[in-house]
Design a protein that fits this description.
It contains three helices and 33 strands. With about 400 residues, it is mainly beta. β27 and β28 form a beta hairpin.
């Protein structure tokens, strides 16, 4: 209680500083190293709706749209009407990046732990389980049991000849040292299938038994090698995108997925989606992707033990993608979003239906009500009944 009161007083001081002395103080982001015990003492749970500052993973479940704010938690929007989504709540989850939902239980990472929340009553969301130490790749390299935590901090400005310098001492002196599943985007690292939650880290596949949805239990992890990025479920198989290719696992025995094959390509960032006997893979250059090509690859997976490249198409800087029937929607990063007819996979390059160049797009879900696109300035929703004429329905703006 004493620690809580101190934090409240600090927040009051922050408000006073930011409102009364704007010329002397400013809010910046600072990162400090914290212990696991300190991490687990950070506030977690339902709060009032807040504006989104940055968009991460997206997820749809029933009539709700969930938007991850990296490192902070999950915004919840009532999306009964995609033309007017309503910001209803925020789940504060420090260190959160990914999520998945099944049978009214939301699973989310919090640094090294998995948290489960009961969302059957959206007005009274409750944490029902914490599974400790399951995402160990999040630990600080070379410093076991410590994590990096970033937060907004009020600091005093100090003016020197060279300009304004932040007073870091002001920060350190005030800081403690001690049932049914939804649908995620192609950038997802969490997925659900056959009452199991599958997660991918930088180098491993994690398995959780969620038959008892509110009581997930960690089963095991499978080493995949370095550079793992995304996971996509389809037809009792797991398609795992990595920097150097795509792993295909048979998950008919959900607790014991078996690797069938690896489709390899040059070093590149790599999400993947699947429909029928084809996998659609994007490769792009980027900050962590080294030398690579910007292209869309269509991979024949009719024999999943022997995937083979069918055709590749040059793109500008492809990120996430989604397939729905005869249409493929592809995010081109700073270059907009494109829609293609894929009736003939060998002619996709000649069958672009539309190119919206005025938004920065990173991931996309072709949902039952709308096409949901994460962009630099927020989350867009489009009517895509005519893939040649995407019609914007709404935009959830990012606060800047």
């Amino acid at each position: 209680m004493k620690k809580y009161l101190i934090n409240v007083l600090l927040l009051l001081l922050v408000a006073a500083f930011t409102q009364c002395k704007k010329d002397e103080y400013e809010v910046i982001k600072l990162t400090k190293m914290i212990t696991v015990e300190q991490m687990r003492a950070l506030p977690v749970g339902l709060t009032r709706a807040t504006e989104t500052k940055k968009t991460g993973k997206i997820y749809i479940y029933n009539d709700y749209l969930f938007i991850n704010e990296p490192g902070e938690g999950i915004h919840i929007f009532n999306n009964v009407n995609p033309s007017a989504p309503v910001n209803t709540a925020f789940i504060q989850i420090p260190g959160n990046v990914d999520l998945a939902i099944q049978n009214n239980i939301l699973y989310a990472d919090s640094f090294i732990d998995l948290l489960a929340f009961d969302i059957s009553n959206m007005n009274s969301i409750k944490q029902v389980k914490r599974v400790n130490d399951v995402f160990k790749q999040v630990y600080s390299a070379g410093v076991q049991k410590y994590l990096f935590y970033t937060k907004d901090t009020v600091v005093k400005k100090q003016v020197y000849k060279g300009g304004v310098v932040n007073d870091i001492a002001a920060y350190s002196s005030s800081s403690s040292q001690g049932g049914s599943s939804g649908q995620g985007g192609s950038m997802a690292r969490f997925t659900l299938m056959n009452d199991y939650l599958y997660t991918v880290g930088l180098y491993e596949l994690g398995l959780f038994d969620v038959k008892n949805a509110s009581n997930p239990s960690f089963i095991k992890s499978i080493n995949l090698g370095w550079g793992v990025e995304t996971i996509f479920p389809y037809d009792n198989k797991l398609f795992i995108g990595t920097n150097t290719g795509m792993h295909i696992f048979n998950a008919t025995d959900a607790a014991n997925p078996v690797k069938l094959s690896t489709y390899s390509h040059i070093f590149a960032c790599d999400p993947v989606v699947v429909q029928g006997k084809f996998a659609y893979v994007t490769l792009r250059t980027g900050n962590n992707c080294r030398q690579a090509s910007n292209q869309l690859e269509v991979v024949d997976i009719e024999d999943p033990t022997k995937p083979k490249l069918l055709v590749a198409y040059p793109m500008q800087n492809p990120h996430g993608l989604s397939v729905n029937g005869n249409n493929l929607f592809l995010c081109e990063g700073n270059f907009g979003i494109k829609s293609f007819n894929i009736t003939d996979n060998k002619a996709i390059g000649n069958n672009m239906l539309q190119h919206l160049q005025n938004i920065k797009s990173f991931d996309v879900i072709a949902g039952p009500k709308s096409l949901i696109v994460t962009g630099d300035d927020g989350v867009y929703q489009f009517n895509y009944s005519n893939a040649s004429n995407l019609r914007q329905l709404s935009l959830i703006k990012v606060q800047k």
